[in-house]
Structure formats: structure tokens, C-alpha cells
From TrEMBL, chains A, B:
InterPro entries: BlaI_family, Cu_transp_CopY/TcrY, WH-like_DNA-bd_sf, WH_DNA-bd_sf. Belongs to the BlaI transcriptional regulatory family. Keywords: DNA-binding, Transcription, Transcription regulation. It comes from Periweissella ghanensis. The keyword Protein biosynthesis does not apply. It holds the Pfam family Penicillinase_R. It comes from the Bacteria. This is Transcriptional repressor CopY.
Length: 145, 145
DNA sequence: TTTATTGGTTTACAAATGTAGACAATCATG
DNA sequence: CATGATTGTCTACATTTGTAAACCAATAAA
């Protein structure tokens, strides 16, 4: 994710997952829920929430004494973004095998599988025989060249 | 990646890609190659290489005055590892659409596509109708429950 | 209304990371 | 052999991240 120059950190991401999942939540709820998974102090979570707000990932609405936190970005695009970022750092030659493994290791619904099959069928005709690594600008590559 | 407790950082990863691609390389080569992509000073690259050596990602062999750097871990497993780590932080419900997008956006060889098709065919019969989010321990989920 | 509790704000600090200068050893060359 | 170029080592420092205590305001309970 990249909003106004600041990235979301791993710890912050875990809190976002909670807010995304619940739609919105108070800090108390968030603290309770995160502590089922992580051994973070109340204070730590508060700090993290604070940072998420200043980074514009969460907005707050005061409800009585407490705050209700709501995501300012949707989960789908966020997930897409961080994954795309990661993939951009991976050698093209590795991506095929990598995706194959991910397909195998991930629990997918029948509908997911069907749409992937469709996508692959579309891709196949124009697919190249082999993939080249673009890690280096030219022919200095020991892997594909 | 997780070797002896220390993670590889993003900047370090970029250097590993070069060494992986070339099989092995001297610092001079590495500096030259990385500077085609990144605006890093010579000194910075040296520091990063040093850290990679102490983190046991690279080994060195002295050849005359200079060092030859060689990867101590293979690229495939490393790529797999970081991706798996990322996926473990993503809601199960997002993974299907996410993978679909990755399939579409990635250049895949015919062979890659074929093996994915095969894998999907195998998976389909036992695939569930729908996927549940496991972000929260129970039924407090606004997405799937 | 006094006090305990709850929840938000500030401040703090160590470790990791990005970034690089300064210095030292080695080697090639005049 | 003296010197400049090459390459490695050490030191440095700002920023980001993880982690949390201390403090303060508002509210609920006594």
C-alpha cells in the first residue's frame, strides 16, 4: 500500500485485517481481538491504531467517549497492491512455478477454480514457449541466457 | 526468509536477485548492475552486501584483492518463502480473486499454464462451494458470516 | 461529588533499515 | 619504491518499526 508516501507495516496490517473483517470497530474490540492472536499490550495496539489513522488508512468517528474505526481503503485493492508489489520484486522465471505452488496450497472455491480455468484457457493460445528473466538489463543472465 | 532469526530486507533482496541471476559476482559487478536500477552509492551497496554475508545469505571467497559473492540459499525456495509469508497474512476469502488477478497479470509459459490447468482439474472435485474468512476466531466476521 | 475505570494522547526508547562517509589495505604503474 | 586506484572495513546517523509506559479526560459507580 502506498498512500501519501507512508507504507503500512506488518503489525499495522494485522489490525487492518480486523477492521476490514468487522467492517468497523472500537479500539476495545480491536484490542480484544488482536490479543487472541498476538501478545501485544493494550498500549501497543493504541499506538498502532493511531499510526493507521495518521497514515490515512483508518478514519475515526467519536461515539460517546470512544472512537469507532473505519477503513479508508478497501481490503481487495489493498491485498492486490501488496501482492503486486511483492511480485514486482520477483524474477519472471520464478513466477510460473510460484503461482503453481500457490494454486496448489490455497483453498479455492469451485467458482474460483472455474474462473481460473477460464482465464488460463484464454491465455494459452498466446502464451510464449519460454519465459525470460528480466532481473538484469541484458544478456548477463546465467539463468535464461 | 528466515535464517538464524534475521530477515532479509527489501534492499538486500534486490542485491540477492543480482547474485542469483549471475550465479556469483564480485562487489564491483554487483554495484555496477544495481546502479542501473537504483540510485545507491557504492558505499551503500557494500554495506548491504556485508549485511547479507553476516545474515548468512551470501558467502564470500577471496579472489586476489576482491571477493566473489555466492548465494547460500536458492532463489526458488526464497521466493516461495516470502510469498507464503505474505499469503499467511491475507484473508482466505481474498485469495481466490487475488490469485486470479495474478494469473491474468503474469506472463506464463505454455508449460506453466498446462501444469496449472492440471492442478486445477485435480482440485476441482474436492473444492468447497464457498470459502470462509479465518481472520477472526469465530462468528464475529462481517464478511462471510 | 469523589473516585475508580475506561479510553485516548504523548512521550520514550531499542532495534532494524536505508544511506553513506571515512579510513585502511592492496595492487598496479610510473 | 612512491602513488594513485581499487576494494574492503568501520563508523555514523536519520527514519521507521515494534513495543509500551505515563499521563490525561471523560464517564460511571460509590
Amino acid at each position: 500500500m502506498e498512500v501519501n508516501g507512508t507504507e503500512m507495516t506488518s503489525a499495522e496490517w494485522e489490525l487492518m485485517r480486523i477492521v476490514w473483517t468487522k467492517g468497523q470497530a472500537s479500539s476495545t474490540e480491536i484490542i480484544q481481538l488482536i490479543q487472541l492472536k498476538k501478545d501485544w499490550s493494550e498500549s501497543t495496539v493504541k499506538t498502532l491504531l493511531h499510526r493507521l489513522v495518521s497514515k490515512n488508512y483508518l478514519s475515526t468517528v467519536k461515539e460517546g467517549r470512544r472512537f469507532i474505526y473505519t477503513p479508508l481503503i478497501d481490503e481487495g485493492p489493498a491485498v492486490q497492491q501488496i501482492t503486486t508489489d511483492l511480485f514486482s520484486q520477483i524474477c519472471d522465471m520464478e513466477k510460473g512455478p510460484l503461482l503453481l505452488k500457490l494454486l496448489k496450497d490455497t483453498t479455492l472455491s469451485q467458482a474460483d477454480i472455474a474462473s481460473m480455468q477460464a482465464a488460463l484457457t484464454v491465455k494459452l493460445p498466446n502464451a510464449p514457449t519460454e519465459i525470460h528473466c528480466h532481473c538484469l538489463p541484458d544478456d548477463t543472465c546465467a539463468k535464461c541466457c
